[in-house]
Amino acid sequence: MVLRLGDEAPNFKAQTTEGEIDFHEFIGNSWVVLFSHPADFTPVCTTELGEVARRSKEFEERNVKVIGLSANELGDHHKWVKDINEVNKVNVGFPIIADADRTVSTKYDMLDYQDATNVDTKGIPFTVRSVFIIDPKKKIRLTLTYPASTGRNFDEIIRVIDSLQLGDKHRITTPANWKKGDDVIIHPGVTNEDAEKLFPGYKAPLPYLRLAKSPF
Questions:
Q1: Which of 30, 77, 187, 196 is the most buried (most CB within 10 A)?
Q2: Where is the active site (predicted)?
Q3: Which is nearest to 132 in space by CA: 38, 23, 34?
Q4: Helices 43-54, 154-169: crossing angle, 10 deg rounding
């Protein structure tokens, strides 16, 4: 199944380290970051989950729930969480989906078809490092896919969340390498007259490039 930006995130029920969930109920009125991991007890995944736990307040401040997924049984997940907490000096407080049968991974097209070695003992592919940012309307707003060998950049994931949330509230877009607090671009659909009302004193180095102070 090919998932595109703007599609509704497929619903599913699954067992997690925090109990059984219905994904759409889990989303509720929050934003969600769903991110997959090739397997438990792997070094890169252990650092990633530790990083997400370490930054839990940053996600909470943005009304974002995080939920991981790994292609192992639930019992393995619970054992693995102990390792993650110990080595990263954190407390993993978000759920991790047990997807040993690859049901959710298949729905979200997360399986690795590139690396022939990224398989379990039965030869079934593990996942790549997929990321889905989903808004409170349950629409997919961003997808990222990293190879299993490369850890994710969570600064970039938080940066995109900031950009999406700001764009939803104000009629703006964000330029290359934008960070929270930087100038923003006034949306092309905003007339100059409206731009002056919404963003007094904006600058226009080009007729089609209008810059304003960040509404943050």
A1: 77
A2: 45 (cysteine sulfenic acid (-soh) intermediate)
A3: 34
A4: 40
Element (H or E) spanning 64, and its range?
A: strand 64-70
Length of the chain: 216
Query: Which tokens is 75 given?
Result: 């019992």
31-37, strands of its sheet edge to edge: 19-22, 13-16, 96-98, 64-70, 31-37, 129-134, 140-146
Average pLDDT, rounded, for the chain: 92
The CB-based long-range contact list for 9-14 (8 Å cut-off, 24+ gap) reads: 9/34, 9/132, 9/134, 9/138, 9/139, 9/140, 10/107, 10/108, 12/103, 12/104, 12/107, 14/97, 14/98, 14/99, 14/103, 14/104
Q: How distant is the alpha carbon of residue 137 from its chain centre?
A: 15
Q: What pTM did the predictor assign? A: 0.91
User: Six-digit token pair at 201?
Assistant: 């004193």
Per the annotation, the verdict on 45 as an active-site residue is yes
Residue 89 reports pLDDT greater than 90: yes
Parallel, antiparallel, or unpaired: how do β-strands 172-173 and 140-146 relate?
unpaired
Q: How confident is the model at residue 120 (pLDDT cuts 50, 70, 90)?
A: low
d(CA 214, CA 216): 5
The Cα-based distances of 28 to 15, 24, 31, 72, 137 in angstroms read 18, 7, 8, 26, 9
Distance of CA 15 to the CA centre of its chain: 20
